[in-house]
Design goal:
Elements (H helix, E strand, L loop, with lengths): L3 E12 L2 E11 L3 E5 L6 H8 L7 E6 L2 E2 L3 H8 L2 E4 L12 H11 L5 H11 L12 H13 L5 E5 L7 H14 L6 E5 L3 H7 L2 E6 L2 E7 H7 L1 E6 L4 H5 L5 E8 L2 E6 L2 H10 L4 E6 L2 H12 L1
Parallel strand pairs: 3-8, 3-9, 6-7, 7-8
Antiparallel strand pairs: 1-2, 1-4, 4-5, 9-10, 11-13, 11-14, 12-13
Helix pairs in contact: 4-5
Length: 298
């Protein structure tokens, strides 16, 4: 990951009942990175820090090459960013959709009215209605159209598919994939929809309890994390501590063990060389990997 679009250096946010960080993170330019974690992980707080909606207690944040604690740099960076928050603002409910679009348009010289109208047609949204009268799904689609209309260099999407029906969800995936066809485009998204991550993400950032658990290339991650089912032997636990990439060992009944490795190929070769009979193996899903990482980090 050579070109970095977002960099957090030892960023800490302290609240009475929550601590985020220290976060040491570099997010690559030109890819889709998904922040994955349970509710309360700090995903939304991380977006708010990037946009200077809240300030860290310590550490530095660089966004599109600009320090966000520098006001001129912050303004320059924000003109290149499209942000979709997790929740729509109730303070906008009195506005019509086109009123909000006109307000946002004022701040972005690169606003493309043709692109905006194209997205409205695709999502089947009438922007002449008051925002407070729109369903959650329609409001989400309108906000996504507004977010994309100025062709931002960086998209920050917090739970982008919240409220979308399956057909609209597929349209959203198409729009985001189309967006990434242009050079120098980057998406950072927070989501709990694992199918969304599988279809879109290049990199996965695992978070839990305000802490960063790791950053992984998606295909490499899913190819490397496997569960092996083995017949229990004498001193199994002691012997299996030497397994490459050993992450978890548990009994599953009937004299069998389930062993999780983050280095599947090396682990399989080691088991064969050590005389273990492999009764089955399967790749882990992302939510299973997150569960293991959370257990390790406790």
């Amino acid at each position: 990951m050579t070109d970095t679009i977002i960099q957090l250096e030892q960023v800490v946010l302290e609240r009475e009942h929550f601590r985020l960080g220290p976060l040491q993170l570099e997010i690559p330019k030109g890819y889709i990175s998904a922040i994955v974690g349970p509710n309360g992980s700090g995903k939304s707080s991380t977006f708010q820090l990037l946009l200077r909606q809240i300030m860290p207690d310590s550490g530095t944040i660089t966004l599109l090459g600009e320090r966000v604690d520098d006001e001129r740099g912050e303004l320059a960076a924000k003109k290149k960013i499209g942000y979709l928050p997790e929740e729509a603002s109730s303070q906008e409910n009195w506005m019509r959709g086109k009123d909000k679009a006109d307000f946002v348009r004022y701040w972005y010289p690169s606003w493309n009215v043709n692109r905006y109208n194209e997205l409205l047609r695709l999502f089947e949204v009438n922007d002449n209605m008051k925002l407070g009268k729109l369903s959650k799904g329609l409001r989400r689609k309108l906000d996504l159209a507004i977010t994309l209309a100025h062709s931002p260099e960086l998209l920050l999407l917090d739970e982008p598919s919240s409220g979308l029906d399956p057909i609209s969800w597929k349209k959203m995936l198409y729009v985001l994939q189309q967006y990434m066809e242009e050079d120098n485009r980057t998406i950072v998204m927070a989501t709990h929809i694992m199918d969304e991550v599988k279809r879109l993400a290049d990199y996965i950032i695992f978070m839990a309890n305000g802490r960063l658990l790791g950053v992984y290339e998606k295909d490499e991650l899913l190819g490397n994390w496997h569960a092996f089912f083995l017949k229990e032997q004498d001193e199994s636990e002691l012997r299996l501590r030497q397994l490459p990439g050993m992450e978890r060992l548990e009994a599953v009944g009937g004299g069998f063990l389930r062993v999780i490795s983050s280095e599947a190929r090396a682990a399989e070769q080691w088991l064969i060389a050590e005389g273990w009979s492999i009764n089955g193996q399967q790749p882990l899903e992302m939510d299973d990997i997150l569960e293991v990482l959370m257990a390790i980090s406790r």
